[in-house]
UniProtKB/TrEMBL annotation:
PANTHER family: ARAC-FAMILY TRANSCRIPTIONAL REGULATOR, HTH-TYPE TRANSCRIPTIONAL REGULATOR EXSA
Keywords on record: DNA-binding, Transcription, Transcription regulation
MF GO annotations: DNA-binding transcription factor activity; sequence-specific DNA binding
Keyword flag DNA repair: no
A Pfam family recorded for this sequence: HTH_18
InterPro entries the record matches: AraC-bd, Homeodomain-like_sf, HTH-like, HTH_AraC, HTH_AraC-typ_CS, RmlC-like_jellyroll, Tscrpt_reg_AraC-type_HTH
Domain HTH araC/xylS-type: 180-278
The name this protein goes by in its record: AraC family transcriptional regulator
Amino acid sequence: MGFTHELIEADANIPVKYIIHTASDPVSVPRHWHEAMEISYTAIGSVQNFYIDGQNYTTKPGDILVINSNAIHSILPLFEENRKALSIFFPYSFLQEHVPNISEIEFCCFLKEVSDGSLARLQGLLADFIVEAETGKRGLSSLRLTAIMYDVLYLLIKNYSVQKRNTTLITTEKHLARLTKMIAYMKDNYAEELSVSDLAAHFNLTPEYFSRFFKRYMDSTVLEYLELIRLGKAHQLLMNTDKTISYIAHSCGFPNEKSFTRVFKKVYKITPNKYRLQGKNHNLTV
């Protein structure tokens, strides 16, 4: 899930895609979007720095977040000794087939209990989904996972769907295409020295329009987002290689080690060296 516009396809034997996250995979996921509707369920521990359309969340066990189609979201998890979370992605084509008015509704983001106990039922279903995915019998497991998935979708539509509001979400194919091209170019050239003027000129736009358009839909300035792309690349090198901090900074487009450390501390609250050491110590215990 390390790219900006993500194409979600169903798993081979069930109509949805799912990922079970554990404490051993603290991967940085920069801001991105996809047509699929996504459910995030925290089973154990917490998920910090979960950004969804301008709001930041920190979850606790039992919390359920819903990311609507084309909603911009990201996650910057920190190391935690004991964490497990589930992400389920409902492809938009599947939603269109089974929910005829899906284009007219959206789902509440942070789910709370309603009078009929729907939140508790959803929590139980999602916990069962994890157990079945991890321990279920081959053959029957896909049947059980599919049944749970339909129950989850039914409860979401019945109790947590509302009429779509007028928001600044990405709503047209034109805007989706433009943003995809902008960010793809930034990801391809993150290691270069890029200014807003350089980027705007590449797309035959004025710097003012480019900045305004990007800020409106990504809720981030161009340079802030470029920093996040560079930070994501640097995070991979930091945790998967023994390259020096100076090498990582320069190879990922930061002007110097000091600049990289400043951006890293702003997001992860500690220096890159300490983060790397914390990760190595954590891996020795899992």
